[in-house]
Amino acid sequence: MPVRDTAWPEGTPCWVDCQVDDPVKAGEFYTGLFGWEIGSTGEEGGGYLMADRNGRSAAGIGPKQQPGMPSVWTTHFATADADALAAKVTAAGGQLLAPPFDVLGAGRMVVAADTTGGVFSGWQARDHHGAGVFNEHGAYTWNELHTRELDTAKKFYADVFGYTYTDIGDGQSMRYAMFTAPGAQDAAGGMNDDTLMPGDPMPSYWLTWFQFDDADAGVARAVELGATVLMPAADTPAGRMAIVMAPQGEVFGLIDTNVRVGEFQ
Fold first, then answer.
1. Which candidate, 242, 253, 244, places its Cα nearest to that of 222?
2. Sign of CA dihedral 95, 132, 185, 136
3. Where is 95: in which H helix or E strand?
4. What is the pLDDT of residues 165-217, one digit of tens each?
5. Helices (H), the chain
6. Which of 12, 22, 40, 198 has the fewest beta carbons under 10 Å from its own?
């Protein structure tokens, strides 16, 4: 079981949480799907719920900060200094949606939008380091930006986090960039060129993928719990994957990385 007990390296996706109208109902959905154990942070936490898997922090579920905003999963990136990160965001042309603020004793965070409109957060860990379990059934395993302005996004995140990229895809049916944080050996996430995706254009957004051993069973269970299938399970070189929308509208991916078919070009 991949676990972590210390702060994540700078620029690494370190935490995911969703913002919904009814966190309690969402907690019931994800408990039924992933087997999470849901705990409250109390009145001080403003209704924020912590989801554990096997006794380790896996994700968060919180209320929407503004009425009418969509239900979403948010990707948080580790930073040693949220204030310095905020300055880098604005210098790179991004927008601060919530300037740096303290979250009790857990940490300090900033919420921003990149130059293509993709919303993300920077997390400066204190008592809460981020995810304590990852890359296993019921935990997040990959985070990727979906955008119609891939080159613009790559420049922004390189300026802010110092990412380098490995490009994959044939440029015709797929154009994808995996990003690696400074000093790291492995890619920490990816960015997809959505101009090559079927369907209506979507605003830029960060998609969270959760490992599910047997993606087809995961999709079936999600549907039983009230989810809608946006992309049926399909084999890929990354794993067998599907995209679903939870009952309150937040979108996420299910992937079984144990089942890989073909190779990336």
1. 244
2. negative
3. strand 95-103
4. 999 988 778 899 999 999 999 999 999 999 988 777 889 999 999 999 999 99
5. 23-34, 82-91, 150-161, 215-224
6. 198
Question: Looking at the chain, how many residues does it have?
Answer: 265
Question: What's the predicted TM-score (pTM) here?
Answer: 0.94
69: helix, coil or strand?
Answer: coil
Across-strand partners of 102? 108
């296993």: which residue's tokens?
Answer: 136
Q: How far is CA 173 from CA 8, 241, 259, in A?
A: 34, 17, 22
Q: Report helix, strand and coil shares of the chain as percent, to nearest 5.
A: 20, 40, 40
List of long-range contacts for 167-170, beta carbons under 8 Å, 24+ apart: 168/264, 168/265, 169/193, 169/264, 169/265, 170/265
pLDDT in tens, 34-51: 999 999 776 676 789 999
Residue with tokens 């990003």: 179
Alpha carbons 9 and 12: distance in angstroms, whole number: 6
